[in-house]
Amino acid sequence: MIVSNKIYHLFRRGISSVSRFPAEVTIVEVGPRDGLQNEKTNVPTDKKIEFVDKLSESGLRRIEVTSFVSPKWVPQLADAKQVMQQIKRNPNVRYSTLTPNIKGFNDALDSDTQEVAIFGAASETFTKKNINCTIEQSLKQFDQVVQQAKANNLPIRGYVSCVVGCPYEGFIKPKIVCQVVEKMLSMGCYEVSLGDTIGVGNPNTIRDMLIELRRVVSGNMNLLAIHCHDTYGMALVNIVEALEHQIKVVDSSTAGLGGCPYASKGGAAVSGNVATEDVLYLLNSLGVKTGVDMNIVLEASEIITSVLNRKTNSKVGLALGCKKN
User: Among residues 85, 84, 71, 87, which one has the least CA distance to residue 300?
Assistant: First the structure.
């Protein structure tokens, strides 16, 4: 009931509540990369391209297209170079890629990426189990990527996983998140996305973290973005909390694609990334500008869910789909 009550009262206050939020928010679409990377169903290259091309028509200004990683580890994204080279570039969109090592960076550079991303976590145990090293060691591994990105004048985005909770350590203290964020900013990241990887955050933990981070960024919240998972249905209310702290960049995934395999004890499929459609509906309802066309996002959702042969994970997509039918 926490989600329903908070959003209900926000809606009742209507325009009077808008002043508490940014006038405009940028949605970073992560569906083509974060949404698809763990999918078991192979998505043909031409369908990935069609998916990205449709998203490019929607008014989104930032799309994370793919990841240049070894096909051994992420076979779904083995066609990263083909996808990047064949999408129709919209001059109003910045196309980014995840580049975990220098080989991946060089491949991304050859594919005309416009932004690269690196990643870390606020949990030592999660980092060790995920990539077999400490937090500090994981960040040092990106030194060469960061230096080459700077040399080629490419923006660098940072991701921090497990910012409020970890499947192994439980609650994560804000001071740990602050240390990782501060390190990424000092390395040269222009923005750090804060990921509630297993979706256990709530408005209190999000608020406490952002209060601590405000000191790290000297009040410049433009250096931060929020990346919520909807595992327990808390993503939207957590985004509202972030908006109240003047976070102006929100990550989301069309159709709610993607999720963390560690989010449930049995490793079963659970709700993952918050759906772009749901975020867009929320922001529209609050009078926050995005410049994104809901109908085109819904068309993109139909493209990818048809390939995956399943329903969208977006509540808004399901509701509007029912109305259409």
Answer: 87
User: What is the tens place of the pLDDT at every residue in 167-226?
Assistant: 999 999 999 999 999 999 999 999 999 999 999 999 999 999 999 999 999 999 999 999
Rounded distance between C-alpha atoms, residue 188 and residue 121, angstroms = 17
Answer yes or no: are the C-beta atoms of 104 and 72 closer than 8 Å. no
Using CA atoms of 101, 105, 108, 114 in order, give the dihedral in degrees to the nearest 10: 120
Contacts of 88 (CB under 8 A, 6+ apart): 53, 56
Q: Is 218 exposed, middle or buried (0-12, 13-18, 19+ CB in 10 A)?
A: exposed
pTM: 0.91
Backbone angles phi, psi at 3, to 5 degrees: -60, -50
Cα–Cα distance measured from residue 49 to residue 295, given in angstroms and rounded to the nearest whole number: 19
Active site residue 260: yes
Count the neighbouring beta carbons within 10 Å of the beta carbon of residue 1.
Answer: 6
Between CA 257 and CA 94 the distance in angstroms is 21
Of 166, 178, 189, 260, which one is the catalytic site residue? 260
Q: Which amino acid is at 108?
A: A
